[in-house]
C-alpha cells in the first residue's frame, strides 16, 4: 500500500489540520478557538465544526486536505477515467460508494481513487484487500458526484445493454448538473426545512410535477414543477442520494447527508415508478433537532411516573404501538436516553437508523442479505447487552426471540402495529406467542398518536367552552386536571402559516401487564375487562388523553377527533 495511505491514520489523530488552517490564515485565532471549544464539549473534527459554524464552506475542505496531506486534487473529466475492460464485473460499485472512494484509474496492481474525505479509514481497508498500491486523490463533492454518475452510467451500460443508450444517460447527467436543476432542488430542500416539513413529496400529476410538504402531519401544496424539468430534478435527487439514474423501472431507496443553514441534515429518499413518471419522497431528519425528553414529547406527569417505574426494571419487554409516523421511535429513544449510562450496554436493531445516539450501539437491518430483525436479534443477544431495542416485531420468530431474551436477563423495547394497547396482546397471540410467555415477559404496552399543538401566537379562547364542558367525556377528566380549564381554538397567523397549529405532541394510552391484566382471558371478554380496569385505576384511553390536552388549551377537540376518533 502506498505511503500516503499508511500515514493517513496517524495524521488523523493529531491537531495538525487545525495548525495548517491557521498557518495558511484560512481561519482566525478566534474562529479556531471557538471550534476547539466546541470540540472539547461535543467531540468531532475541527474542520467539520468550522463548516457547521459557517466559517468554512464544504467545498473548501478538498483543497485543504490536498494541501495538508500533500495529495493531488481530482477534478472530474471523462477523459481522466481509465479503467480496464471488465473492471465493473469485479467491482461492487455500491460498496465503493458506501466506502466514500471511487476508482478512476488502474495500472496493474495500483488503483487510483477519488475521495472527499481522506481521513475515512475504512476505505483503505476495503480497497487494500484488492490492490497492493492504493493512490488517493482528494476531490470536491461535486466532482465525486460527477464521477459516481459516470461510473454508474458505465456499469448500467454493461447491465442494461440496449435498454438505455449512453447518449440518454449523458443527457440525464447534463440535466442533473445544469444550474436551473441544481438551484431548483436546493431551493425545494431549503423551503422544506424553513416550513418545518417532515417530508417532501414530488409527484407527476396531469401533465405537471407537483410538490407537497408534510408539516405537522398534514400535506400542504408547494410549487409546481414543469414536466420538462421532471427528469432533471429526479436525476439530480438520485445522484445526490446514491441511486442509479439509469433505473426507472423499479423502486429505489437512498440517503443524502448535507447541511442547511448550519444544521446537519439527513434526507431519506424513496423513488417509486408511476404511470406518468416517478414519485419521489424525501424525509427530512434534522440532527440534534429532536429532544428525547418525555415532557417535551407531550406525556402527562402521571404517565411519566408509570413509565419511569417500568424503566427501573432490568428484565422484561416494554412495547409501543401505533401507525407509521406516530412518534413511536422518538418515544423509545427517549426511554433509552434515560437509561443510557456508562455502565449500561444498549444495542438497537433498526430499519432504518433514524437518529444517532451517543453511547448506544445501533445496528441497521439489511433484508437484501438476509439480515432481518430475527437474525439480527439472535446476533445481538450474543453481544451481552443489558438493554435491547428491536425496531419492530412483525413475525413469530422475532416476537419469540424478543420475549425469550427478556427471560435471560435483558430489558427489551420494541414496537407492534396495532390500533390500541389492549389489542397488542391479541396481535402477539396471533403471531404465535404463547400466553404464558406474554404474561411472564411483558411489562407494559403503550399506544401513541401525534396531535397538532395550537400556535401560541394566535390561539384564542374557545367560545363554546361552557357547552363542551357539559359533555360526559370532559366531566370525567375534570378531577385529574391540574390547573384551570383553558380550552382554545385555532385561529391562524404568519408564525403558523395560517393553520392555527405549530408543532405536534403525543397522546398516550398506557396499560400495565400486572397480575390482574394477566388473569383476564385473551378473548372477546378481554376488551370490556380492560376498560373496567382503566376506569377503576384512572388510566386514560388515547382519546381521553387527547381531551385532557384540550382542557389545558394545547390542542383542539377537532384535532383529537381527527387523530383518535
Overview of the structural elements:
With 565 residues, the chain is an alpha/beta fold. Strand 3 (110-115), helix 9 and strand 4 form a beta-alpha-beta unit. The chain is globular. It starts with a helix and ends with a helix.
Question: In summary, what is this structure?
Answer:
The chain has about 575 residues and is α/β, with parallel strands linked by helices.
On the 0 to 100 scale, the average pLDDT is 85
Class based on secondary structure composition and strand pairing: alpha/beta
Number of helices: 26
Mind summarizing the main beta sheet? 7 strands, mixed
Gyration radius from CA atoms, angstroms:
27 Å
The portion of residues assigned to helices is 40-55%
Strand order of the largest sheet: 13-12-14-15-11-16-19
What descriptive keywords fit this protein?
single chain; 565 residues; alpha/beta; 26 helices; 19 strands; disordered N terminus
Question: What secondary-structure arrangement, pairings included, does this model have?
Answer:
Layout: H1 3-6, H2 8-12, H3 16-23, H4 29-42, H5 46-52, H6 61-69, E1 73-74, H7 87-90, H8 93-98, E2 101-107, E3 110-115, H9 122-128, E4 133-139, H10 141-160, H11 166-177, H12 179-194, E5 199-205, E6 208-215, E7 218-226, H13 230-241, E8 252-260, E9 263-273, E10 278-286, H14 294-297, H15 301-311, E11 316-321, H16 328-339, E12 346-350, E13 361-364, H17 373-381, E14 387-390, H18 396-407, E15 411-416, H19 422-430, H20 435-441, E16 442-454, E17 460-461, H21 465-468, H22 472-477, E18 488-489, E19 501-512, H23 515-519, H24 526-536, H25 542-552, H26 557-564
Parallel strand pairs: 1-4, 3-4, 11-15, 11-16, 12-13, 12-14, 14-15
Antiparallel strand pairs: 2-3, 5-6, 5-10, 6-7, 8-9, 9-10, 16-19, 17-18
Amino acid at each position: 500500500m502506498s505511503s500516503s495511505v499508511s500515514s493517513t491514520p496517524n495524521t488523523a489523530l493529531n491537531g495538525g489540520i487545525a495548525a495548517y488552517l491557521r498557518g495558511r490564515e484560512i481561519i482566525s485565532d478566534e474562529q479556531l478557538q471557538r471550534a476547539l471549544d466546541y470540540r472539547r464539549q461535543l467531540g468531532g473534527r475541527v474542520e467539520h465544526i468550522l463548516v457547521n459554524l459557517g466559517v468554512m464552506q464544504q467545498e473548501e475542505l478538498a483543497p485543504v486536505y490536498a494541501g495538508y496531506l500533500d495529495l493531488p486534487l481530482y477534478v472530474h473529466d471523462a477523459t481522466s477515467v481509465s479503467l480496464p475492460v471488465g473492471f465493473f464485473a469485479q467491482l461492487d460499485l455500491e460498496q465503493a460508494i458506501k466506502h466514500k472512494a471511487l476508482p478512476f484509474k488502474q495500472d496493474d496492481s495500483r488503483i487510483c481513487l477519488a475521495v472527499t474525505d481522506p481521513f475515512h479509514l475504512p476505505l483503505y481497508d476495503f480497497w487494500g484487500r484488492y490492490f497492493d498500491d492504493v493512490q488517493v486523490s482528494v476531490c470536491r463533492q461535486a466532482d465525486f458526484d460527477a464521477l459516481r454518475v459516470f461510473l454508474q452510467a458505465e456499469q448500467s451500460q454493461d447491465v442494461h445493454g440496449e435498454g438505455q443508450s449512453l447518449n440518454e444517460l449523458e443527457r440525464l447527467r447534463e440535466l442533473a448538473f445544469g444550474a436551473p436543476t441544481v438551484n431548483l432542488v436546493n431551493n425545494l430542500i431549503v423551503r422544506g426545512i424553513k416550513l418545518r416539513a417532515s417530508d417532501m413529496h414530488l409527484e407527476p400529476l396531469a401533465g405537471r410535477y407537483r410538490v407537497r410538504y408534510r408539516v405537522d402531519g398534514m400535506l400542504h401544496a408547494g410549487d409546481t414543477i414543469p414536466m420538462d424539468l421532471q427528469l432533471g430534478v429526479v436525476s439530480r435527487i438520485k445522484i445526490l442520494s446514491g441511486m442509479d439514474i439509469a433505473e426507472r423501472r423499479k423502486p429505489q431507496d437512498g440517503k443524502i447527508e448535507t447541511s442547511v443553514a448550519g444544521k446537519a441534515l439527513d434526507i431519506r429518499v424513496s423513488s417509486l415508478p408511476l404511470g406518468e413518471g416517478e414519485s419521489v419522497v424525501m424525509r427530512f431528519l434534522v440532527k440534534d433537532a429532536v429532544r428525547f425528553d418525555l415532557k417535551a414529547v407531550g406525556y402527562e406527569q402521571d404517565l411519566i411516573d408509570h413509565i419511569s417505574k417500568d424503566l427501573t426494571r432490568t428484565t422484561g419487554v416494554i412495547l409501543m404501538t401505533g401507525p407509521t409516523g406516530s412518534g413511536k421511535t422518538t418515544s423509545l429513544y427517549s426511554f433509552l436516553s434515560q437509561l443510557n449510562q456508562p455502565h449500561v450496554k444498549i444495542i438497537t436493531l433498526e430499519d432504518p437508523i433514524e437518529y444517532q445516539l451517543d453511547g448506544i450501539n445501533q445496528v441497521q437491518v439489511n433484508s437484501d442479505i438476509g439480515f432481518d430483525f430475527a437474525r439480527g436479534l439472535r446476533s445481538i443477544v450474543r453481544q451481552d447487552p443489558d438493554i435491547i431495542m428491536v425496531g419492530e416485531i412483525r413475525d413469530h420468530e422475532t416476537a419469540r426471540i424478543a420475549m425469550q431474551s427478556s427471560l435471560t436477563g435483558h430489558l427489551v423495547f420494541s414496537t407492534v402495529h396495532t390500533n390500541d394497547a389492549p389489542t397488542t396482546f391479541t396481535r402477539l397471540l396471533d403471531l404465535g406467542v404463547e400466553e404464558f410467555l406474554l404474561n411472564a415477559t411483558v411489562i407494559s404496552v403503550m399506544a401513541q398518536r401525534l396531535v397538532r399543538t395550537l400556535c401560541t401566537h394566535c390561539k384564542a379562547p374557545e367560545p363554546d367552552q361552557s357547552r363542551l364542558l357539559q359533555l360526559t367525556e370532559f366531566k370525567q377528566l375534570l378531577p385529574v386536571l391540574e390547573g384551570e380549564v383553558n380550552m382554545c381554538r385555532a385561529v391562524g397567523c404568519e408564525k403558523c402559516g395560517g393553520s392555527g397549529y405549530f408543532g405536534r405532541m403525543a397522546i398516550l394510552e398506557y396499560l400495565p401487564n400486572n397480575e390482574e391484566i394477566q388473569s383476564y382471558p385473551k378473548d372477546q371478554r378481554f376488551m370490556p375487562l380492560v376498560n373496567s380496569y382503566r376506569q377503576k385505576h384512572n388510566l386514560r384511553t388515547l382519546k381521553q388523553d387527547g381531551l385532557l390536552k384540550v382542557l389545558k388549551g394545547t390542542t383542539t377537540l377537532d384535532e383529537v377527533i381527527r387523530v383518535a376518533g
